[in-house]
Amino acid sequence: MPKGSKKKKEKVADFSKAKLKLGKGRQLPSNVVDTSFKARSIALPTQSITIEKDITLPTTRKKQSFDDLLSLMKHYNANTRKDAVLSLRELFQLHPEIVESSMTTLLGACVRLIGDEDAGVRKTLLSFLSWLLPLVPKEDLIPHVPLLILFATSAQTNIFPEIRIDAVRFLDLFLQLVPETVVSGWMEENSGHGRRVLEGYLGILSAGTKYGGTEGAAQATSTASVVLSAQSKLVILKSLSTFLTHAVSRLLQSPSNVASDPTAVPLPTWFFAPSFLSARSFAAYERLFQTGSADVRPQLNVDNLQDDFICMPDFVTGASTVEWSLNDLSDLSLAHTESLTHPSNNTTPLIHLARTLYSTLLASYLDCAPVVFSPSANPPEAELNLLTVTARIMRTLYGSVLQNKASMNLAEEEILCDELKTLLGYMTGYFPFRPARREIKVEHAFQDLNVIYCELTALLVLVSSRRQLGDISRKARLQTSRTSASSSHVKHEGKLTLQAGLVRTYVTSLLLGEDNSGAHISRPLTPPTYVALLPTIWALLSQPKENHTSAQGGALPSTVLSAVLNHAIGTTSSSSVKALTVEFVARILLLETESDYCGPFDVHKTGEQEKIQEWILHLPRTLWEMGTHNLAASETIMRSLLRLLQRGSIAIKHEEIIGLLSRLTPFFMVTHPVRGRFPGPFTKIPASLPRIRRLAVDLVITILSVSPRSEREEREKLMNAVASAVSGTLEEDYWQQLVRVTGLS
């Protein structure tokens, strides 16, 4: 064995190359730095037990303080930044007392993440601000809004489309919380934040290439030039619609139209304005149902009472300290003259914006209409909502401009009307809009589209009627600018007549509680929907007779009025729409008492006297049913009856007065065959609201003064009921003085 092993080694050695070591090898330079190290421990100063930490400092469950989280929001890692935002919410939930003191520093760090390149960070930040900002008092939040809007508008112009879309979502949040600050200065060149926000919207839509020019035709591109999905377009247009709604409401808001109750839906009256000869008379008509701002009024001065009027004018009671007398009512129509609509408003930016967005809105509608109105299946949610938002923007822009005849010249009005006619022309082929299958959300959206179509059509009808009523200066300009386009005008008028007929049929069936197939609708109209229909109803009622042709295939104005009255009578006393129906019907009945009214609608010629009588006589029952559940609606009912009686409306004749005598008695005192006599709803009206209590007394005095003496029994029942109801209250002296002055004792 040893011998064989030795031979193998020798054989290997023959084929091995010996490695010769020549020299010392490569030497390190003299200035080399030795980077090697040896460590026996790791030092973590922040976790050292030798450092005393403030145990009272608010921290998260991970022992992270507010300053720690702010530093982590600047971390290079996106997940770390996102976790820092989530931890901030945890910190404020555990320690809400530090929110107010941390706002400036916190928002200064948060705004830098609005344009963060990571979608998860932006989504987390939006969720965090949506939770935090509503908790902050508005007056504390407003100083920080400029900084928030600055970074949001900067993100609107980011090169990445996802960041631009998310910036719009942040603006949506700010519009919900502080809309007046976001839209401020939107129509000024270099003032306020609104201008930058609006330009950001138009930039994303590629619709602002020429916006901002003061002369020449507005030019715009459609959204087709920008690669945006339907969902992205929806986010942008929905936010733009909200922005325009707030901007227009601030621009066109009149102090006389501000409701005393912020939650109430006010009844619009602008569409009545063209039917009056002067702004003065319309201003007086507009104030007929306004409520006084003071609940406490002075004592009745018997020496100031006159026999010309028979009740105290509660509806003009204000915060003044002077005493009001009955003859003050005679000067009501001459007081506090206002503009016809809002002539001082500068709507030029709205006109330019409407023309700028015209092609964008048209392209958006044409893209979605075939899918949304497919007869075979219900539309996708994104396309349906996109079409609805597009229609709302049309209503906001064209409605706010065309309803104000003093806001534009004839050429601008013609251009806007032509654009609106084009938009409605594409919609008419599908109207009335019906879903393929019954689904609650889709039905609501389609009803909104139907109502918006009716509103836009009514605008064109009212503009046409306004011209026919005779604005002399407009007629003069029209004669000088008339061209060979008269045949085109006649063609447009024929289309408008057809559209008005379709709208008339739809509105009548909607008020009667039927859909287009004749089936009954289980859900009633909401206050916003009813208010949105009022301009359409008035446009249909005020159309001249020559416009009602058989080609329309719709109902005549008398049928529309009948549907309005049936709906007003059928609406229950507990409905939130009841007060609106009462005021609207009362207003159209009071038109014939206005000397300066010049509209074509004439209640005498409607042939609906029996239905009007039924509406009048159902009001006392509604008043009794409401009791004290809805005092604002009760006040509207009492004021409506009072105004109709005072102005001698033909709606209240001998039969109605006798009916009111007997029907109003239970409101003050109920006589039951078994339970006997017990107080009515009047006695439950709080003493802190003397305005409403005295308004009821005024109504009774007025009815007694105009009722025939032959109805002695009913008169005595009502007087005894009122005397018992006011006994021992502040209204007792008021009642006795009125009875004595008017000779009813």
UniProtKB/TrEMBL annotation:
Record key words, sorted: Nucleus, Ribosome biogenesis, rRNA processing
Key word Nucleus present: yes
Single GO cellular component term: rixosome complex
Subcellular location: Nucleus
Pfam families: Ipi1_N
Keyword rRNA processing: yes
Domain (Pre-rRNA-processing protein Ipi1 N-terminal): residue spans on this chain: 139-244
Main localization category: nucleus
One example of a Gene Ontology biological process annotation: rRNA processing
Subunit-level organization: Component of the RIX1 complex.
Family as reported in the entry's similarity comment: Belongs to the IPI1/TEX10 family.
Biological role: Component of the RIX1 complex required for processing of ITS2 sequences from 35S pre-rRNA.
The protein, known as: Pre-rRNA-processing protein
Species of provenance: Rhizopogon vesiculosus
